């Protein structure tokens, strides 16, 4: 069973033939956002889940999956005559709820998918195609229920449910295998003590510089003699932020354009939904020292006498 | 000319235009408009020849195609921001510099990483590909269809400004 699923997934992952259509689809998504004008950015941040701290898509999909699971149960009871009065109406209501939830899930999913690469992009395209097929089947089923065509409505819903399960399997692949939407930032607590990383004189003003502190990538930004330090790996997909640049005092990711506040590490703009770890900095004898900030969601702590003497 | 040389030459054109545009002041409005329109056209041509000819040719020798597409997308989005701003807007300079940095990263990624990878295609293939790129570039620069697309794009960006 397991190996059969894996063979199917690997076949999709290797299907380079999907790349050309996938970029066409992305151009369509990009054009849609272009037409949204200045609302494009806030709209995409809303759909990514920048306001939430992790992607919106995975929890939104529980609405259609849950509603359609309830519909399958109610359809089963109704078809075998064990449902009692009102079962058909209840089934119709949950199918409708599922359709509404699926439309919202598709919007969030497409927004996240735009920035997927290679294998994840191909799996995502097939995931979207399957779930769109299921959405079409359930919309048809809903229309049939309103017209009183109960048998055909239950058949299309049953087929749709099978398609949703297949689509859901690929969705799981995207999260757990391709780690799409997962926080890719550096988890290491190092360096725990202030560690020398650069000479202050070597830092250009207002330009990020990537350094390596005991295997941990860190980005230093020197502005007017003060130095701020954040993690060197983008939480979105692990891009090297040392190759990024500053715009309006925010660090821009070179791959997908996420922007991060340098004081708090919070994403000021998606696609990253997770914050960037921050490092405390101090300057000793013209040398820059950094230490991983204990609670990096809080502003820089002042160095106490006790800490400074370590 | 080999394919990577053709593309580097066009990168120089793009970088030059951006440097010039970033160097203008709010007093040279006509010049800003003119440079911005040329930039829009050259970037469109550049994206198109890379997407149509170069990337498909290097798909088996470079793992960086997805990144290149992502960077094109980021350039496109920032270009839209610049196109939407009135040329006398106080933010104009900052947004042009942001576009310049975005483009600089993308060209660095190609010139220092992807192009060396493309050398495994061999001299002859790169020469042939370079000729195709130049031919397509000339064709697009002279094409009426391209001018129409540009006009549509400018109009769309103007309409969606508010």
UniProtKB/TrEMBL annotation, chain A:
Q: What InterPro entries would the database entry show?
A: DUF2231_TM (IPR019251), Rieske_2Fe-2S (IPR017941), Rieske_2Fe-2S_sf (IPR036922)
Rieske domain span: 195-290
Q: So where does this one cross the membrane? A: 155-176
PANTHER family recorded: 3-PHENYLPROPIONATE_CINNAMIC ACID DIOXYGENASE FERREDOXIN SUBUNIT, FERREDOXIN-RELATED
Coiled-coil residues are: none
Question: From the Swiss-Prot or TrEMBL record, what is one GO molecular function term?
Answer: 2 iron, 2 sulfur cluster binding
PROSITE patterns in UniProt:
RIESKE (PS51296)
What name is this protein filed under? Nitrite reductase/ring-hydroxylating ferredoxin subunit
Q: Which domain of life is it from?
A: Bacteria
Tell me, what's a Pfam family for it? Rieske
Task: Please give the organism.
Answer: Blastococcus saxobsidens
Automatic annotation (TrEMBL), chain B:
Indicate what this protein is called per its UniProt record.
Hemerythrin HHE cation binding domain-containing protein
User: Residue limits of the Hemerythrin-like domain?
Assistant: 5-117
Database matches in InterPro entries: Hemerythrin-like
Q: What is the scientific name of the source organism?
A: Blastococcus saxobsidens
Matching entries from Gene3D superfamilies are given as: nmb1532 protein domain like
Q: Which PANTHER family does the record match to this protein?
A: HHE DOMAIN PROTEIN (AFU_ORTHOLOGUE AFUA_4G00730)
């Amino acid at each position: 069973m397991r190996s059969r699923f894996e063979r199917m997934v690997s076949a999709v992952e290797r299907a380079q033939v999907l790349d050309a259509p996938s970029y066409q689809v992305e151009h369509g998504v990009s054009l849609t956002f272009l037409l949204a004008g200045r609302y494009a950015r806030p709209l995409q941040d809303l759909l990514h889940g920048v306001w939430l701290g992790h992607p919106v898509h995975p929890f939104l999909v529980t609405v259609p999956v849950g509603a359609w699971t309830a519909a399958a149960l109610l359809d089963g009871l109704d078809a075998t005559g064990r449902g009692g009065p009102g079962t058909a109406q209840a089934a119709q209501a949950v199918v409708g709820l599922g359709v509404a939830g699926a439309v919202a899930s598709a919007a969030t999913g497409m927004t996240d998918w735009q920035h997927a690469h290679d294998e994840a992009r191909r799996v995502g395209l097939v995931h979207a195609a399957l779930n769109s097929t299921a959405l079409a089947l359930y919309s048809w089923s809903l229309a049939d229920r309103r017209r009183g065509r109960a048998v055909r409505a239950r058949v299309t819903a049953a087929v749709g449910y099978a398609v949703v399960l297949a689509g859901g399997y690929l969705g799981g692949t995207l999260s757990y295998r391709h780690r799409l939407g997962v926080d890719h930032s550096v988890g290491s607590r190092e360096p725990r003590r202030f560690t020398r990383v650069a000479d202050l004189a070597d830092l250009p003003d207002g330009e990020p510089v990537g350094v390596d502190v005991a295997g941990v990538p860190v980005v230093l930004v020197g502005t007017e003699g003060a130095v701020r330090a954040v993690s060197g790996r983008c939480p979105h997909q692990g891009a090297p932020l040392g190759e990024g640049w500053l715009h309006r005092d925010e660090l821009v990711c070179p791959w997908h354009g996420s922007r991060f506040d340098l004081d708090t590490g919070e994403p000021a703009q998606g696609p990253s939904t997770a914050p960037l770890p921050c490092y405390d900095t101090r300057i000793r004898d013209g040398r820059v020292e950094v230490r991983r900030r204990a609670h990096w969601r809080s502003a820089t702590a002042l160095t106490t006498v006790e800490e400074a003497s370590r | 000319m080999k394919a990577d040389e053709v593309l580097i030459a066009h990168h120089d054109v793009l970088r030059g235009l951006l440097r010039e545009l970033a160097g203008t002041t709010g007093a040279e409005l006509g010049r800003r408009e003119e440079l911005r329109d040329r930039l829009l056209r050259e970037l469109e041509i550049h994206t198109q020849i890379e997407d149509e000819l170069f990337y498909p040719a290097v798909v088996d020798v470079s793992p960086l195609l997805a990144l290149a597409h992502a960077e094109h997308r980021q350039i496109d989005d920032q270009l839209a921001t610049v196109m939407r701003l009135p040329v006398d807007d106080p933010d104009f300079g900052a947004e042009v510099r942001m576009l310049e940095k975005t483009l600089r990263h993308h060209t660095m990624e190609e010139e220092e990483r992807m192009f060396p990878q493309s050398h495994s295609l061999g001299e002859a293939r790169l020469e042939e590909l370079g000729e195709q790129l130049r031919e397509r570039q000339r064709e697009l620069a002279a094409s009426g269809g391209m001018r129409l697309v540009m006009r549509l794009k400018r109009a769309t960006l103007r309409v969606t400004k508010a």
